[in-house]
Amino acid sequence: MFIPRNQTSYYMKKLYTSIICIGFGIGALAQPTLVPTNNISEIVQEHFMGNGIFVSNITFNGLPSTEYHSHIGAFTDELATMGIGSGIMLSTGPGSETLVNGQQSTSDLYSPQDADIISLVNDANFVGEAAVLEFDFIATGDSVAFQYVFGSSEYNEFVGTQYNDQFGFFLSGPGINGTFNNGAINLAVLPGTNTPVGINSVNDGVNSQYYIYAEPLGGYIPQNIDGHTVVLHACIGQLQVGQVYHIKLIIADMTDSALDSSVFLSGSSFEQFCNEPEGEPGGIQAQTCLLSTIEARVDYTLDCGTISMTNESNVSVEVSDCYFDMGDGTLTPACQGVNLHTYDSPGVYDIKLIYFSNGFQSIFDIDNVLISEFPAAQPNVEFNGIELSITNYDGTSQVQWYLNDVAINGANSDVFEPTQSGNYSVSVNNGCPIFSEASSIVSVGSELVLSQMNIFPNPSEGIATITLQQNTTMINVYDAVGKLVQSFNTLGATRLEITLETGMYFIQAVDKNATITSTMKHLVK
Predict the structure, then answer these.
(1) Residue 196's closest CA among 142, 155, 251?
(2) By CB count within 10 A, which of 225, 274, 427, 463 is most buried?
(3) Average pLDDT rounded to a whole number, residues 30-48
């Protein structure tokens, strides 16, 4: 029986011109979980790419990134069981079986006889089952690197056999002159060597410093991983800045498809940077060079649920468009000027800056913004001939009535009895003040009446309330070209609710003499 060894942790101290990559390992029991998604592009962008990577043409197993695939998925692992706390997993078996159920997959989902992956093994094995992720990216620095862990159910029983499950990261593009298809080079190699990482090249007896034997732990999660590598780095330098490169990440069952293998790609670890001359201090995170010219710089201020954002980024790639993803499903233009967005409710919103360049997309994480100070609903004022009242008052916000925009001393309840003609309005304040539309009241004989109707809210999102003059008997709604679209008999009501589709409307109030007493414009967003 094999006995697990104490593992030594490694980490990247420095990246020299020769691109030396080293890894580290952590062992602990944990419960990794899959992150549900049906969009491979979303998985790659949010769970693998670092900030500012311009990526395009994402495919999995030759199919578009919008197709559902069970052999790829995002995962999280709070205790970093295999040294990686989150990222994406490529597996020759369905992800739910690899991470959760401990079952084995024998179905041939995708079995390309990939010449690159076959060339990495010593015997002429065939591919039984494979998972293949591919995409293009623009080189915004002269180097690229990411972290990964390889694990398999083939350990340790099938070490040294033809069941030598294999994986590879094949990079091709300008200046790359490798021995694989399209001149690609394999980045999945042991540090400082050209030795491909796989079952037979990394195990308890060969290159054991990069190996962790998992089976004796019992109940080790993921269930299908009996052994795995420490965290390794895939990296390469001497890329040509501004050029497009292609990468193919493939893992395959060799000779059969009986036992599954997986590669775990560390979250947000796919980074580009500029290499340093040997001897200078720094590391991937400290690199500046070209990466600093695509760093997103966004200034923003918050004011009661509304955020004002100014994009001050200096992006070296020529972009065709850019947006803020506000975290609530809204995209706001971000290429120029000051951009305002008002949230519909309090919460924490993950704001991203998205750039587009000739079919490539790049996403920057800006901030998780807490929207806590949030105004009450905009007050709607009604007049019954005697007193003004707020129809949507929350009962707790501070109230202040105004006459001709001047605060009325002591008028702080949700009702107010006017004594003279003028324009009356009200504010409610829960820390974020918000004002009503003004209601014009005039004296007719010994009575005070509304001089015109009010519409709330205006603009609206389809539903609006009309506060009616006392003498209004009919409301007519016309579209932007003058066509009558709705007509209502008020039947003596003091207010009326209407529902309209997106567009511009003109709303008319008509009295019993068929005289138009008010006309207001109303916008539906």
Answers:
(1) 251
(2) 225
(3) 76
